[in-house]
Amino acid sequence: MALKYKDLLPIGSALIIAGTFFFLGLLAGNLPYDFKTLYTQASDADFDNSLKHYQTWAQIPTVALHLLHSFIGLGFIGILIKLYKPSEDAKYFEYGSLLFYVIAFCIYLTNLRTGAESAVIGEWGEVDYKTGINVIAASEAMIAFLLLGVLLLQGGLYYGEWEFQQRLEAFNKEIAEEEATKSATESVSITSDESDEATETSEKQTKKTRQPKSEAPQRTPRKTRSSANKKK
Predict the structure, then answer these.
(1) In degrees rounded to 5, what are phi and psi of residue 185?
(2) Is residue 218 pLDDT above 60, yes or no?
(3) At a CB cut-off of 8 Å and minimum separation 6, what does 54 contact?
(4) How far apart (Å, rounded) are the C-alpha atoms in residues 12 and 94?
(5) Which pLDDT value is given to residue 161?
């Protein structure tokens, strides 16, 4: 049995959700450091811990980095699958998901990767390292909001398709019930017509059987030759 494009749509949705959650998991690993430096009155020790964390994060092996990017790429593969032949009702959801995902990945490359390399090199441009670390933390918050937008769009699309299927099934069920009722009514009318015809036929047969028999005509006796001779 050949695989149709419609069968690939659930796979595309699963890849989008998998890539998005992996991306969010990557950000969640940095949250304990970002929360202290960005949302609380952080001390110098908190900034130093965050700086060491991003220095370690920037020096991960190349294989691990490519593996990380490949998991993020699953989201792009899923979006491209669903954008190959988008329906008129769902295409804006898919284009919105692509836009949010691309922006999130661009922020990751420009702010997170560049910021982590700056933590290793020690060059932060016109700002100090504390401001640079907070820029990384704020960028991760922006990425998280964009990825949540992707999940909301995919969830809204799934709910819309599910509700449409529910309404379609209810409509088809109603049509089937109406057709069944109509066919039952027609069969009852046909049966009643047949019974009426059978009743009329039986009544006709009954009338024929009850009709009195006509009297047989009296036979006149034939004269024999002997009686004729006697008269002569």
Answers:
(1) -65, -40
(2) no
(3) 30, 33, 115, 116, 119, 133, 136
(4) 11
(5) 83
Question: Token digits for 155?
Answer: 């969830």
Return the domain boundaries, the chain: 7-150
Q: Are 179 and 187 in contact (CB under 8 A)?
A: no
Q: What does the alpha-carbon distance between residue 37 and residue 39 come to, in Å, rounded to a whole number?
A: 6
Task: Give the separation between CA 194 and CA 168, rounded to whole angstroms.
Answer: 39
Across 145-168, average pLDDT: 89
Q: What are phi and psi of 122, to 5 degrees?
A: 90, 10
Residues 6 or more apart whose Cβ sits within 8 Å of residue 97? 16, 79, 150, 153, 154
Q: In terms of Cα–Cα distance, which of 118, 126, 127 is closest to 57?
A: 118
Q: Helix 91-107 crosses helix 62-83 at what angle (to 10 degrees)?
A: 160
pLDDT at position 21 is 95
Evaluated on CA atoms 91, 97, 100, 103, the torsion sign reads negative
Taking residues 93-104, report their average pLDDT: 94
Question: Could you give phi then psi for residue 65, rounded to 5 degrees?
Answer: -65, -45
Question: Looking at residues 126-144, what average pLDDT do you find?
Answer: 92
Global pTM value? 0.73
CA–CA gap between residue 16 and residue 61 (Å, rounded): 26
- Helix ranges restricted to H, 84-231: 91-107, 114-121, 129-210, 225-231
Which of 218 and 133 is assigned the larger pLDDT?
133
